Every structure is written in C-alpha cells, then in structure tokens.
Amino acid sequence: MPSVSAIALAAALAVSLWAGSASATPQDVFPRPPGIVPRVQFWTRVYAEIDTNGGLIHDARHLNVVYEVIRWPKGISNAEEERRIARAKQHYVAVLERLAAGKTQLSAEERRVLKLFPPGVSRASLAEAAERVRFQRGLANRFRDGLIRSGRWEPHIRKVFRDRGLPEDLGALPHVESSFNPLAYSKVGAAGLWQFMPSTGAQYMRINRAVDERLDPWRSSEAAAALMRDNYRTTGTWPLAITSYNHGAGGMLRAVKQLGTRDISVIIDRYESRTWGFASKNFYTSFLAASDIDNNPQRWFGAIQRERPANHEIYVTRHPTSVSALARTFGVDVGLLRELNLALREGVWSGRVPVPTGYAVRLPRVAGRAPAEQLAAALPRAQEEEEPRTSGTRASASKHRVKRGETLSLLARRYGMSTAALAKANGLRTTSKLKIGQTLKIPGGASTAAAKKTQPPAKAQTAAKQTPSKAAVRSHTVRKGETLSAIARKSGVSVKQLAAANGISPSTRIRTGQKLKIPQ
User: Fold this and answer.
1) pTM of the full predicted structure?
2) What is the pLDDT confidence band of residue 135, given thresholds at 50, 70 and 90?
3) Which helix (H) or strand (E) segment is 37 a member of?
4) Which of 68, 197, 311, 377 is 20 to 30 A (C-alpha) from 225?
C-alpha cells in the first residue's frame, strides 16, 4: 500500500498537471467509469423525473435495482407518507425473503422482482438484498425551483471558480447541497447555499455573533471555491476532491491508502468505514447528475427562465453601525436590505448587535442615487444609535426552556452567539445533549423574541412594514420572464411595497405587458 507521503506527492503532481491543462475535457476532469454510470442514472431520475410526492424503492448498493416508483397525492400527512413508504418497503423485503428461501412456484410479482437481478443470483445474495431495501424521495420539483433561483448567483459562482483556475461546472454542487436555497439549514448544523458546517466554515469565512457568512451566497461561494481547491491539492483527482466535500479530505486519503487506488468506482464499491455511508458513496455521482441537468435543463424540464443576476453595489463599513442607520443613510427599505445581507445575524436585525467594521454591505442599485461612498459620510457609529443606558447596570441573562428537537447549536444561532459561549454560560460541553424542559441561561440579555424563529426568517416575515408613498414616480411594463421580486430589486424597493402600490398580493403572478406602478 502507498504511504500517505506518496499519496500527497502524487496529488501534488496531479494538481500541477490540472493547472497546466487548458484542453481538458469534462470527461477528463470528471471521469465516469462504467461502474458508476447506473448511479448517475439513478440520481438523474431522482432530480428530474419524480417530485417530492413520491420516490424510488430500491437496492441501497445496486442503484440500478429499482423495485418500484411510488407516488401519493399532494396534501397527505407526513404520518401517512411514512406509512405508505413503510408498507412498500415491507412488501419487497417479504418478496426477497421468499425468493431467498428457495420458493419454486413464483407469482408474477416474484418473477418480476427476480428478473431485476442477474441470472443465477444466489439465495444468499437475495437474502442480503432483503436487508438493503431503501426509499429515496424524488426531488424534481425542488431541483426545478433551484434551477430558477440559481440565476441570481450563477454568474458570480462561475466567475469565482474560473478566476481560481477551477472547473466552472463545480458551481452545480449547490443543487445537491441546498437546491440553491441560501437559508437552508440541515439537522446537523450545516447552513447556506453550500451547506458549510460551522467548523469548516470558520476556516474560510467570518462566523461570529454578528455575522455568519455561510448564509451569504456570494461570500460562501468564494469559500467553497477555496475549499474545493484545497481538497484537490490534497487528493489529486476531482472525484476524490468532490467526495471530500461530504466525507472530508482525510477520509478520502484513508480510502486511497486502504485500497491502494484513487479510482472512484473502486472506492465506492469496496471502501469500508464507519462513516462511509450512503450519502458519501453517492456524493460524486449525484453531483454528476446535477451537473448534467444544470447544463441542459430543457431536456428534462422544458424551457426554464432563471432569475436574473442580482444587481447590487457594495459598501464596506469603516466603523460599527446599525441596520436602521444603513437603511436611512442609503434610502433602502430594511426588508430589502435584509434580503441582500443574509449573513447578518438576528441580533443585528433586532438592534442588539452592531453591524461590524469591515462588513461588505450589499445595496440595491438605484438610478439617480448618489454613490454609496458619498452617502456613507453621514453614516453614524453604532453608539450614536443606541439608547442611553443607566450607569452602573449590567445586562442580565435571560432564560430559555428547552423544547423537543432543540440543540445547543440551534439555540446559539437563534440568540446570535456561538455554541461555545452558550455552553460555557450553562456549564455544558458544546456536544452536550439537552433535555426537554431544561432551563438554559442566555448570556448578555439576549431577547427571547429573537428565538422565535428556528432559522433566518423568510423574506415576507422580515420585511419592515412600511407604507409606500401614494405618489408613484414612474411606471414599468413587465417584460417576459420578469417577476415581482426581480422588478422590486431593480427598482430599489421591497416586494411588499411594490405589491401594495399596485393593489396586489406579493405572491401574485404578473403578466408580460402588465403595467406596474413603482413607488417612490
């Protein structure tokens, strides 16, 4: 077996070869050995054929073995969904167990299932298959929504990867991670478009009580490019570098050392590790499927109108300030400001924590407005915005009673602080499990109102309630592909203001040729 140093040397050589190869084809960059093709086809079906009201009952190891596509009507309860999935899985477990027992007089259903396996399959193999029956939910509707959303950030993402000498198609990875939802949170604490874990994110971005750049689509894309570059330098191939995004570069080096190969097909089939589960095994092939669809969406979804790229300017703060001061100084609705600055934590929006020095504030471009640097001369410091405090008083710690499903990391996000700070205030470890009904101290007098949301609020929940001026300064004729949100961003107003000025709901679909009033 090769040593770790030998693997590192080979990886370094591969990096130099990649950096000097301008003529590399997609097949060279992202190889598809025959052994992984069925997996790519499986994920293509998941992403493009079956929506979230259904899924595939399949073999967890051999993804070409799909027993059934199940679907159910929209609107049924989660419990009913689970019952239908469980019944379908139990059905195929029973069929496989009967086949493994050597039954000779087979029903039509049993013959159909048996034909899914190679001729002469052993009874032992069928018994093992009975233990691998799995359900995979379809994601076609979410993938389509992600394709539409991706237009806002795709030009930036591709430029970031291109400028760093990396394959631009790596920009399809958020389809796998978050469906291009910048506010996505996972059960284990991964966040944002690229689903960075806090520990990994802190190596590439700013994460503190005021800012979590994992939630900034532009900044997190730059961090993802840096991480991918590091993964490639460590592992030496793109299949391993991409899989490292899920499993860690160290884990992939252990796989290479255990098997003596960097062939992704061999590693998927033969590598054994406690943490090498279904998601890790399928990460590279699900990326390939997502990239295929992203590059040719009309093949699966017909005509797709992606959102237009976000058009904004940036002002980098030179001293601490508040969001209310930013909104007044630049003449921006607070709700629109929040849509563009998702990295700012709840404590900043509630006014408890200032916008820090050096934060790149994204502002909507508005025709006729003075340059941001010129307007910023009037931007007050945070202390000029704060209410006077009584001398000699200290902020008292508030309390929180733990509810079902709450964790330290989740509560830390809600209250705008680090998990370590919350754990220390309560004499706990960051890995401590909380009990339902347990009372926690929230240091710094954090407002319990900030904890009412489990993640950064949706746009409609966060927009400031401002009544637009009755006088509309201009009108706009809707062009093909435009949406209310796109027109609002371009005009420098919130969706609520634009909808109110036109007497419609923010969720109303607008028509090509329709005239809209643009509020002042």
Assistant:
1) 0.71
2) very high
3) helix 37-48
4) 311
